[in-house]
Amino acid sequence: MQGDFHYYATYCAAYLAGYTHKESLDICYGAQFVDLCSKTLLSTLNAPQQAATTMLQLEMMDARIDIVGLQDITRIWSSFHFLPKDLYAPSPGKKRYTKRYMNKYRLICGPDGDLVKKTVELAKGKSLPGIGIAMHVVADTWAHANFAGTPSLVINNTTDDFYELAEDNGNEIQRKITFRHNPSASDDLEKNIYTNSLFQRNENSVMNLGHGRAGHLPDYSFMRYMYLPAWYDYKVLVKDNPSDYMKAFRQLVYAMRYIRGDIGDFETKIYDTEMTDPYIDRIDGIIRKRQTIASDDWKAFGEDLSREEIPAFDIERYRDEYIQASYDEKDDTYIGKFIKGAIAHKGMVSHEIFKSKNMLAGFVEASRS
How many Å apart are CA 364 and CA 347, to the nearest integer? Predict the structure, then answer.
């Protein structure tokens, strides 16, 4: 997902869940900050680098792909952007697979897994930035489903056979999607030309991380498409983003109502209808609108809900507060709270991966946070 959903749509979800305007801003800022809190940024703040929630492109290019480097990559991407759906998933079909393959297969992201429940429960009683982190993670389980947060050709590769499932006069048609490998070029919705990662035969190349081979298709809420993923033995798989993004939004509202204490227990496969149904046509319209970024529409919806202005995301907003705080006061700043939440969440996910006897995230002791 992109900033349109992580920032503006998360604000809308928080407000519908019962948070105030200011609280909703703090939550959605944390959700968006997940995509920006790199080791490089943390080093400029003289902050602990283990709190990194993403990696810059230059960091990825310089990343080690030995076992230590791969474990570091996996801890970040599997924790915050490709939360595994089932760490104990059985072998797919009747074919026998190696333990090495199964360890990667079990990191495939998907919604409504056990780690979603643990993520939401961990956020309860924590800071607003910590709630934002959890909402980013939960939302991405819908957008990034079917890809894994570890470099792997045998899991994340696809063929070039991508087709958009579009409508023409009420009939479903298939429109061929063409990929190019120019990161500086914008996706062309009219011509159906998109940018994806360059094919690399090296199993552990960072080009084979996450949904790089599918470009930004998983990040566009309007997109319905069919493709052939490697982990699915190159059989046809259909991805229905409009349906998934609607469930994601409803789940965020439900999760935050639980975190606020309005709901006794959080369960997966439950999506809020009470607070969202009065606005369902508008939400659905935003999700299905054919555009690369929906920030303006989500922003307008949020401001109509709260009658308050939603400022644009500013990465510098809390920088000085953190830098100028004394050592003993840093944990009480916004970034300090975000760092604490990020370390706790990464520790929980990484430990669960390790506990499943999967060493792709390294040896991680249980978090005491």
Answer: 7
* Exposure on the CB side of residue 141, measured as CA atoms within 13 A: 28
Gap between the Cα atoms of 73 and 52, Å rounded: 10
Helix (H, G, I), strand (E, B) or coil at 338: helix
Token duo for residue 26: 């703090």
**Per-residue pLDDT, 365:** 67
The C-alpha atoms of residue 26 and residue 24 are separated, in whole angstroms, by 5
Q: Is the pTM of this model over 0.90?
A: yes
Could you tell me if residue 83 is left (phi over 0), alpha (psi between -120 and 50 degrees) or otherwise beta? beta
Phi/psi for 190 (5° steps) reads -65, -40
Task: Reply yes or no on whether the pLDDT at 90 is more than 70.
Answer: yes
For the CA atoms of 209, 6, 49, 318, what is the dihedral angle to 10 degrees? 160
Comparing C-alpha atoms, which of 116, 313, 293, 301 is closest to residue 221?
A: 293
Residue with tokens 């939004």: 249
Q: What was the pLDDT predicted at 366?
A: 60
- Euclidean distance between CA atoms 246 and 226, whole angstroms: 19
Q: Where are the domains of the chain?
A: 3-155+240-361, 156-238
Contacts of 73 (CB under 8 A, 6+ apart): 55, 63, 150, 151, 206, 209
The pLDDT tens digits for 145-199 are 999 999 999 999 999 999 999 988 888 999 999 999 887 889 999 999 999 998 8
Q: Give CA–CA dist 84/141, Å, rounded.
A: 8
CB 294 within 8 A of CB 4: yes
Query: To 10 degrees, what angle do helices 128-143 and 241-260 make?
Result: 160
* pLDDT at residue 235 is higher than 90: yes
| Cα 187 from Cα 189, distance rounded (Å) | 6
Cβ atoms 223, 205 nearer than 8 A: no
